Model the fold of this input.
Amino acid sequence: MSRITIDPVTRIEGHLRIDAEIDGGVVRKAWSSGQMFRGIERILQGRDPREAWLFTQRFCGVCTTVHAIASVRAVENALQLQVPLNAQYIRNLILAAHAMHDHIVHFYHLSALDWVDVVSALQADPAKTSALAETLSTWPGNSKMKLTAVRDKLKGFVDNGQLGIFQNGYWGHPAMKLSPEVNLLAVSHYLEALEQQRRINQVVAILGGKTPNIQNLAVGGVANAINLDNQATLNMDKLYQVKDLIDEIQAFIQQVYFVDVCAIGAMYADWLTYGKGVTNYLSVPDLPLDSAGTQFDFPGGVIMNGDLSSVQEIRTFNEPFFKENVTESIARAWYDGDWTKHPFEEDTEPRYTSFQDNGKYSWVKAPRFKGHPMQVGPLAQVLAGVALGHKPTVKWATKTLETAGSIAKTTLTPAVLHSTLGRHAARMIRTQLIAELAQKHWNLLVNNIAKGDTSIYNEPVFPKGEQRGFGFHEAPRGTLSHWVVIRDGKIANYQAVVPSTWNAGPRDEKDQPGPYEASLVGNPVADAERPLELIRTVHSFDPCLACAIHTVDVEGTEIAKVKAL
Amino acid sequence: MDENGERMIRVLGLGNVLMSDDGLGPYVVRVLEANYECPSGVEFVDAGTPGLDLTPYLLDARAVIFVDTVSSKGQPGEIRVYERDEILKYPPQTRTGPHDPALKEALLRVAAVNGGPEQVTLIGVIPQWVATGVAMSPIVQDAVPRAVVAVVEALTRLGKPPVLRERAIQPDLWWCDAPEKFSHPAAK
Done:
């Protein structure tokens, strides 16, 4: 029996720590720990609810827009305030662009190198690589000339003794299985994706006013004045810029991202069996189609024990089934007490002890739905879509399984999605859906404006007394909900239950492990000094815990501590 | 690109305004833009804590000036200026979460695509405390004018000296306002 701790040590707190007990080359038990106290919601107490979104979008520098949108939805819910159609469409386009950007960055820049051996790509024959790529995709960026240039660039890095960007990988690890040609193709797409994500980011800038923190939201709508003939407002020129950018990114998503995920799924088919973990899934509907939030383009719901026939749909922004069943437990988290409470009722007091395997060991609370741990994220949403017979989801899920199956020369069923690579596949499937829906919502917006509707805002009115509201958003990392208690026009309590809390949370009062913890059990570990396999499974969730602080450690020489005990 | 087709120069204020001294970068950018006209071809950006999402702001820039808090030996409030090679001297750390502070990685990433900005300067201030809250420590607050001057000097070295506004405007430090400022009629 040995124990691995993956704990990137810096002088600041604020990271995810994973502990795993290994026996016989397999993980037997795991702990997931958030190493930073945030409690950032307390800043909101006493403030004007109309300003809350400005603060919440600073919770996290990467997930800015998602916290902004959940906040305005929560306050609108408290007031039962509807928003004009244009505002819904503009918000939806921003959310769609943000999500496409986020998913591409996650796959290519944050997790592809868990599967792709950069050093091996040096051995590749660019002509063979190009020929191989042609069998998979018509993407013009896969030419022999382009791939030769990429290989030469890589070679330049190595010859200069500086891998730069690529110096931190587990190169040559026995769990790396791709051929040099596939590795080269992936490195080429990695570099191309950097440029793609810059372009899609411009959609957020055009509609949101600024990035990374948007400026156009308001409780009750948006602040994008619409006048098709005015340069200073949202006009046809800007709308066509948005359309062009969506077209471009959709081509990349369909011709490159789709193929790469299918190929990696096929070539690492054993990773369709590891990493299942918690198979209770929670997702919420999003991309609203009406002012009240009763019809959506994305369905969401609850699935228990991986049984798709158990699905219970969450239908509206007022859904009591969601509102009444979310709780958080601090039994194993560094807070005073051991309660389980509804977000409206929480009053968290930090109380740090130490890392206790059988006691408290994380700053992250343990959210539960009807008392159950739930996995959130694109996989939860895709499974809900399949379970509810949502046609576009079924179409892309089927296409993905067929394509990966044909590369692997086998038949893949939806059951393989409950896995480490299944989460990557689901994220890609979701990105395809979002690209199609971005096109749809662009058309909805333009057609609605063409009808003469330029309304963007309904003014909120705060009555005396207390109102409670919740707002949810199916964010890139999964179900995000904000919960607000307003008293006499001011915020009395505010809680954000974020996707990585659902997934990275610790055990609860019943000792039920959270999704990260459960998913690591059964993972193989070939080399305890280089636990690539654990990183693969953790990364498949797209963790985001440590964005709240940003002190740069330029002089620091400490490196991540991976210790076998 | 600016109107002459030249690649941009960006001043990027990094940090979280909800984490006391960590909000230094955005704070300095807000004070800078309130006191100086932004020269053509230059952008002042309150960039928050974008992690790897810094990349888009570097890809089309010929020079960048970061303003951020830094860990360094010394007294809180002291300013440290680093150039590109010093920033990249030590390798970035392996990250479990994908969104940890990623200034080094973002620079290395753009270096792999197109070389990245030719000139990179980090104007760092040593923080006194970094904890949940919107108020900076007095000693770091006092460093703001010096950090602004350091940015102006860096821009001047790049051939883009910003000109003082004839009349300074109020900096948009919305997060620093006491909650009372937003008190609502219904609350009275």
